[in-house]
Design a protein that fits this description.
Strand content: 5-15%
Number of strands: 3
Radius of gyration: 14 Å
Number of helices: 5
Mean pLDDT: 83
Helix content: 40-55%
Order of helices and strands: HHEEEHHH
Oligomer: single chain
Strand order of the largest sheet: 2-1-3
Length: 130
């Protein structure tokens, strides 16, 4: 509950791209619920992460040797790392629309719920990549 309140309070004064704040708040809620995606090693084999990264909706990034559900470009990797490192406030960095869509699918899978609020936000702001 505290995580949600802190995120909504931050959003009320946020004056930059709304997508970044939505991603940050979603990341914080996932972390509070124990579902934070793993970024420091391959979620499938536990190996080191090289340059060619992918993402598994089972739990986080995967190495080039393992099968990914989604490929990750350098800007998406940087955005995920910025979200993970920013515990107290939303990072003031560009977050690609693909990252919001990725986190929304990841959250839906782990919480076993479709978030209607994300659909409404997308309709209002066009935040997710099509």
């Amino acid at each position: 509950y505290d995580t949600l309140v802190r995120g909504l309070e931050g959003l009320s004064t946020w004056d930059e791209e709304v997508r970044a704040h939505i991603c940050w708040q979603l990341w914080q809620l996932l972390a509070a619920a124990g579902f934070e995606p793993m970024l420091d090693r391959c979620v499938r084999c536990g190996g080191a992460i090289g340059e060619a990264l992918g993402f598994s909706f089972d739990g986080g990034v995967v190495c080039r040797r393992c099968t990914a559900d989604r490929a990750l470009g350098p800007s998406s990797v940087a955005a995920l790392q910025a979200l993970a490192a920013s515990r107290e406030a939303c990072p003031r960095s560009e977050i690609p629309g693909a990252v919001l869509e990725l986190l929304a699918r990841y959250a839906s899978r782990h919480v076993d719920s479709e978030f209607r609020s994300l659909c409404v936000i997308d309709q209002m702001f066009g935040t997710m990549q099509r």
